[in-house]
Amino acid sequence: MNENDQDTGPLIPAKQACARYKIVTRTLGRWLENEALKFPRPIVINGRRYFRERLLEEWEKRRAGSLGGA
Prior knowledge:
Layout: H1 3-6, E1 11-13, H2 14-21, H3 25-33, E2 43-45, E3 48-52, H4 53-67
Antiparallel strand pairs: 1-3, 2-3
């Protein structure tokens, strides 16, 4: 069991995650394949992918911090 399994926060369907970042599903797949991007892993329920909203928000914050330069 990983940290995603213990989280009880809201789940975002893959389609909604794509809309959130203004990307298509193929781009989402590329993000998931790119380990350096560290995009949150989905939870698969009945063959459909869902993302923990909290993990997406944390990823956004890390990403914004890394793009800000230091």
